[in-house]
Amino acid sequence: MMLTMKFFQYLSAPVVIVSLLAYLFLGSEYSWDFYLMSVYALCYPAYSVVWKILKDFNNDMKLFVYDLILTLPIALLIFANLYKINGILDPDHLISKAPLEMIYFSIVTWTTLGYGDFQPTEASRILAAAEALLGYIYNALFLGLCAGWLLIRFQNNKDSKKAT
After folding, report:
1. pTM of the model
2. Where do the H-state alpha helices sit in the chain?
3. Which of 7, 54, 72, 124 is 20 to 30 A (C-alpha) from 159?
């Protein structure tokens, strides 16, 4: 049972990423299944990471890091798909819905670089602000959790050396 659960956890994130890429590059109309998958895609890694923190931070660290790292491309692709619905303004102030530009804009917004070459449309401004805030929160959590994990590893190594 545990092996099946781990297999599902390792397999679900790449499947979601491929599905989101397919929606972005191939999909023209978004329907309920896209939104349902987006909710699952955002909730599963977040739930998995929080569960592992509350349950046992040291337990199954590979899967914890895997979930934490794969949350980023999933979130970026969800936002890129959402930007595609309304489009973004390109440098000539024309509405663009090109998939690569959506991914680029999502990365620039998430990291709060704000180059200024692309801008959100009126309908996408709140979405861009929400993505920037989530980017701040994610980066802070990621760095904090990695620092905590390194501290625990350092402490465990120090304790094991004292015991010998």
Report:
1. 0.80
2. 2-26, 32-55, 61-86, 99-110, 125-163
3. 54
- CA distance readout (Å), 117 to 60, 95, 106: 42, 13, 13
Dihedral angle, C-alpha 34, 37, 17, 31, nearest 10 °: -10
CATH for 11-156, options being 1.10.287, 3.30.450, 1.25.40, 3.30.160: 1.10.287
> What pLDDT digit, counting tens, does each position of 134-155 carry?
999 888 888 887 887 788 888 8
pLDDT digits (tens, 9 = 90+) for 113-126: 888 899 999 999 99
Cα 46 from Cα 71, distance rounded (Å): 7
H/E element holding 88? strand 88-89
pLDDT at 1 over 50: no
Name residue 84's amino acid: K
